[in-house]
Amino acid sequence: MTKHTHRIEPGTRVHLDRIDPDDTGPLHSKEKARARLAEDLEELRRLQYLLYADGTHAVLVVLQAMDTGGKDGVIRHVMSGLNPAGCVVTSFKVPSSEEHQHDYLWRIHKAVPARGTIGVFNRSHYEDVLVVRVHGLVPEETWRARYRQINEFERMLTENGISILKIYLHIGKEEQAERLRARIQDPAKNWKFSMADLEERKRWKDYMEAFEDALRECSTEWAPWHVVPATHKWYRDAAVARLLRRRLEALDLTTPEPREDLAKIVIR
Ligand code: AMP
Ligand code: MG
Which of 48, 49, 192, 213 is deepest in the core (most CB within 10 A)? Predict the structure, then answer.
């Protein structure tokens, strides 16, 4: 993994236990991180406007994490700075009976952002090689084939102007325990507590294996994965904002040429 860009180089094996979830990269304090986040959020607003004006690209942010990993927090702290008119968040839950009648990418494709906008997936098609694999909801040959299918799907999207930014928020098992305890102890967080999270927690090892495989199999040149250390929320937010900023900058966005010869227009 490239230090501080958090990018998983395509073709490399991922060992999550060798990536420190407490890492704060070059940002050693909360103050520093918050200051950089504020700067990046301001730049993101400008870039988002340009993305809209340019009108030829969309950006799709895919967020995955274990329960309590901070997907909602990232959406609150990073995406909230954007213009809501050009940012759509989609949360993927257990598929509905209608969704079950279709291929697993059907609901995903429908939610892919339109040109000029930013889409955020809170969970995604990756659940179909994560929870589905861990719980054996389909036979192994079915989920195994999905790595290739997902890569081809994402390649098609990329070739059609959708820039995909995939981020795994990395926390350790002990940090999750603390966050789950906080949901029990802090009345303001009680509503977030779910017994289902404890059930999933028992399968932590299986999830880590499933994540490592997904990160390796689906980190591609066109849509690489990023593993963002997420113990420190201030680092997590700053790191995600920076990744999104860099992604938008890389699109080389420009405002289109005026449609009319403006020099000739006189408004009376
Ligand atoms: P939450 O994000 O906490 O609201 O929980 C959503 C739940 O939906 C999680 O337990 C996910 O594992 C589950 N989920 C999301 N997508 C799928 C899927 N394709 N198949 C099965 N379960 C899913
Ligand atoms: Mg949950």
Answer: 48
